[in-house]
Amino acid sequence: MKTSLLLSLFLLATFTLPAQDKNFDLSRYKTPEYKRHELTSTFSLSGSRSTFEQQEASGNLWLDAVDFEKSQFHTAAELQYQFNFNSRKKVTFISATLTPNYQSKKDKEGPNTTKSTDAQLHLQFSGNQDYYLQEDKFFLTVAPSIFYSTHKDKLTSNSNTNKTTNNNYVLQLGLGGGYGRIEPISDYWQSYYILQSLEKDGLLNRELTDDDILEFAQTATKLKNKRFFDYRIRKIAELEALDSLLRKQDLVTESTISYFTTMNDYWSFASVPDRYAGRKLTATVSPHYSHNMQKNNDTDQWENDLTLLIAQLNYRCVRPINLYWDRIFNLNLSEKIRLSDEDLGYPSNTLNLSASIGWNYTPNFRTIARFGVGYYGIEEPKYSATEEEQKYWKNTLVLNSGISYYVSPQLQINGQLQAYYSDKPMRTSNLTQDNSIRLSLNLGFSYAIF
After folding, report:
1. pLDDT per residue as tens digits for the range 366-376
2. DSSP state of 230
3. Are 448 and 409 in contact (CB under 8 A)?
4. CB of 266 within 8 A of CB of 194?
5. pTM of the predicted protein model
6. CB atoms closer than 10 angstroms to residue 139
7. Is the pLDDT of residue 408 over 90?
8. Assign residue 315 a region: left if phi > 0, alpha if psi is -120 to 50, beta otherwise?
9. Between the CA of residue 152 and those of 24, 71, 73, 77, 91, what are the distances in Å?
């Protein structure tokens, strides 16, 4: 009872806190126009090989020793391109990812040898553009996506070889519109603390105004989205630009070591989490087509086409309660409607519902704590011996909490605690589980050696 009362009082306090500390309104920030291109690549390579001799006993006799050899090789890579464009009229995001993987294994036991290879290639493209008919209010949206994958297996056991090929592609085009806009405000939050720290240390010539912080934040956003190929040159250019702005604003006239160390610390070494402000309601209708094909030893074995119409309604509201607290609410409702009769094994329609509310606490540039509750409901096919279509409704409740502490650019500590409940966690043709409760705890840290 005490715990429930304390929790209720705490939640009430988060709703009734003043709009912002010192009347500073984070939600006032509007992101300036910028373009950002980003290309990242990853590559991994691993392998192992072992040989040994094994001898077995049969009664009082030892059988001849058998030679064993086991080896494996795996390589994976990923190439990802992202493009962001932001203006008061358009918000665009494009992502393209290419992921090849290859793995080979060899197992030898005496005269018997088994070899296998597994080659995969995944290609994914997705995009989203919101075009505002009225600034920050009514917009139209288009969201295309393409996915292609091929998967080739080859298994050779002595003189027998079996080859399997799987090809899959998915096409989807989301069309719709909505109302509202969500702005990223992390740069505004960071700029406030940089200038407040300089003012507190007596390093500014005059008293700060909200317009000073706003102009500083817009410059910061443009700098962070400017392309540089050398990290050192980037930092030099950024600090020079910020120093030039403060001089133009007549906030700084003398350059001292305290001024530059404070600026460099809060700009280069602070942990700045993603924070947002605003609300957005989006409704879309998305035609969806997928094709799956499997071949065994170059002979068609299985092929399936699935055509759907996906209707979706999404509402998201992020409110900065003050400089430290954010409240996030999400609601999503979608229905998948099957359009083709030959899509056997897939229900004629399925309904999904999800809702969550959470709070983020960010008191400084080192700590962020998150906690919230979420509900997920979904219709799933019910396996039965009859041909009549059957479905059931599955309910899931999740409680999440986590904390991250930024010690330095090299060392970060984090922890997560999750409680999960589902009334129907698993339903298959021969297995049913009900009323599942699961708790999970993760503690860890990351340390960069160099």
Report:
1. 889 999 999 99
2. -
3. yes
4. yes
5. 0.78
6. 23
7. no
8. beta
9. 58, 20, 16, 17, 39
Task: List the Cα angle 321/325/331 in 5-degree steps.
Answer: 75
- How far the first Cα of the chain sits from its last, in Å, is 50
186-200 and 210-224 helices, crossing angle to 10°: 120
CA–CA separation, 288 and 42 (whole Å) = 31
Q: Give the DSSP H or E segment for 409.
A: none
- The two tokens of residue 79 are 């190439």
Quick check: 12 and 166 in contact, CB under 8 A? Answer: no
Residue whose entry in the numeric block shows the structure tokens 């519109």: 177
Helix (H, G, I), strand (E, B) or coil at 328: strand
Nearest to 217 by CA among 136, 290, 133, 277: 277
Q: Structure tokens of 258?
A: 């305290």
Neighbours of 188 (CB within 10 A): 27
* Residue labelled with tokens 């962020």: 368
Give 40-94 pLDDT, tens digit per residue: 888 888 888 888 777 666 666 666 677 788 889 999 999 999 999 999 999 999 9
Q: Give the tens place of pLDDT for each residue, 155-185.
A: 888 778 888 889 999 999 999 999 999 999 9
318 and 276 in contact (C-beta within 8 Å)?
A: yes
